[in-house]
Amino acid sequence: MRAVQMVAPRKIALLDDVPEPVLGDGEVLVRTRYVSICGSTMAPYVAVGRWGEMPYPKLPGWDGHESIGTIVASKLPGWEPGALVLAHPQDYVGFAEVFRAKPPGLVRLPEGGDVASLILAQPLATVLRAMSRLGPVIDRRCAVVGQGSMGLIFTSLLRHLGASQVIGIDPLSWRLEWAKRLGATDAVDASQGGVEEAVRGLTKGAMVDLSVEAVGLPEALVTAVHLPRRFGKVCVFGVPRYDPMGFPIERFFRGELEMIASVGPDCAAYFELAAKMVVDGVLNLAPMITHRLPWSEAQRAFDLYADRADGAIKVVLEA
After folding, report:
1. Cα 142 from chain centre
2. Which pLDDT tens digit goes with each residue over 190-215?
3. Structure pTM?
4. Structural domain boundaries enclosing 95
């Protein structure tokens, strides 16, 4: 079968002789129709921080985990071949023509319409999981540091859930336009610094009740910790690219803050809800898919995402 493989930093190989996976009990085999690139995949792709110390080549198909496809074989009662599904690939090998999957990371999808846009249910599920741990945000002031695809989903969902103020923060002006399009009440350009002062002005000195770090870089974490009011919350969501991350412990300590981390891999329990929200149009995230490319252009797809080039927000490979 075909698969995409990271063979070196910023180097993709297209393979066509990878053995198909062996189906296990309680599993299905899914033939890929769409797989999107996640921001968490970029650190190993460009070999940043601790990811640069890990060996290449990577496993064929790794690190694909945002996948839509059709079941082609099943050892799972009630899940017959032919069903269109949102699926979380076992072993994170979704950049492959065929992969194994099992519940809860398996949700039926309706045929018809823009099927590719339903792939956004997977990253939405990771944000839903994070929000389930953060408590109510109705009438709360919030800030989201980083307006890449995950930060934009946070921005949209926070506003939808009743946050009175959602401040999108990013160093790229075109991403801030996306933030406002998806629900941000305010936008702060981080390219010139002064983010804390800007948030203080926008909140009339109150600062935010919740800040979300959706980048995974030390400077983003430092920024996020400086934005909440006393007794406020920080959500650490971006996958850390370095260890340590230069955590501002004095600000955290003096502010008596609460910090909650949320890691995406445990999001499968929220797949069904996320898929329903996308299908029903509760959140209109489809415009975030800015690029759809064939597998033959996988190298270009990864580079677009890594370089934030050509206005890339969400890049999808079509099998």
Report:
1. 19
2. 998 999 999 999 999 999 999 999 99
3. 0.96
4. 3-109+285-318
